[in-house]
Amino acid sequence: MKPPPSLQEIAEAARVSRSTASRALRNSALISEKTRTHVRAVADELGYRSDPLVSTLMARLREGRPRGEQPIIGYVTSHPPEQNWRQTAYFRRLFEGAEQRARQLGFRLQEFSLPAVGNPMRLAEILRTRNVNGLIFGPMPTPGTRLTFPWSEFAVAALGTTLEQPGLHRVRGNYFQVMTLTCTRLRERGYRRLGFVAREHMDRRGSRRWRAAFLLDQDLHGGIEPDAMKLVPGGELNRDVVEAWIRRYRPDAIITSRNAIYDWITDMGFSVPDDIALAYTGLGAQESFLSGVDQRLEAVGAHAVNLVVEQFHHNERGLHPDPKTVVLDGVWIDGKTAPRRSGNRKTTRTGPRNPGAKLSVPE
């Protein structure tokens, strides 16, 4: 079945602006009767049919109050049921941002678990039954995921880069900018031996942008030191491996996304930030203790809703020939774990200052 024409296609065929085409199709009195008749004739010839979902929603928004049941935007998750994705701040904040934005626009965001229903085709049947026309695909557990799905029936957006194929409209954080900003702020504060420790899986989820930005910073400030970056294979960081890396490389500041690093450093007898500063790449906006960058995950989730609703407005469904990616920059949070260094501070020692000392970092 041939997909319905988009608003842009109708405007081009009628030789009017998109806003004029939109008003004409809504029978707006701001447009002359002659133009309205012309645009509607062109739209009919192209096979245009008004979308009742959008018409109903826009009428509710113009009235300033919802009426009846809210239309649903589906939020597709792919983590196994035994993995409670809501316990992970990264995934939870994305969902909460999308949920709030959907509510503002008159929609209700509802989760649909792909593993729970079994397969994508079964999920599509459920969505049809519930009259769900818009979808947001949350981050996939595995980078490079390819998914077969009846895309032509839905307005779709993806979060992050883990759903690699097909090419969809998507929103992600600016991982390269986050790392560059972190390195810049640390160097401005007087730190010189920067180290980056993370799961190799995290770097893959960011399409290697974390690694690329860190190595570029190294190259611009005296050359790349192979030991400065420790990407650990597997699902979790290995404490023994990380501690051995700290003793060998002796960083004066560590960039990471894992809160556990704080306790590991203090357990080794080092002081944060006197011996080793810490900067985190995934802070929340309300953070006051930790230094690092807030990736603004709630805003990332909200923009995914915007992408779906934009497709509703343009009567678009399915894969777009020119999918776009919305990239949001992170913002630096000063915190207390990477203060500005005084001029007489020494380089990081190889041995502990206070063995057994420990201060738990807020999770």
Which key terms come to mind for this protein?
14 strands, Rossmann fold, single chain, 434 Repressor (Amino-terminal Domain), 39% helix, six-stranded mixed beta sheet, 363 residues, alpha/beta, disordered C terminus, 13 helices, 3 domains
Q: Any overview of this molecule?
A:
The chain is of the alpha/beta class and 363 residues long. It has three domains: 1-50, 434 Repressor (Amino-terminal Domain) (Orthogonal Bundle); 72-168 and 298-329, Response regulator (Rossmann fold), CATH 3.40.50; 175-295, Rossmann fold (3-Layer(aba) Sandwich), CATH 3.40.50. Helix content is 39%, strand content 17%. The chain is built from 13 helices and 14 strands. It has helices at residues 7-14, 18-25, 33-46, 52-63, 89-104, 114-117, 120-129, 175-188, 200-205, 209-220, 239-249, 260-267, 297-313, and strands at residues 72-77, 108-113, 134-137, 145-146, 155-159, 163-165, 170-173, 194-199, 229-232, 253-256, 277-283, 291-294, 325-328, 331-333. Helix 1 (7-14) crosses helix 2, helix 1 (7-14) packs across helix 3 (33-46) and helix 5 (89-104) crosses helix 13 (297-313). The protein is elongated and about 80 Å long.
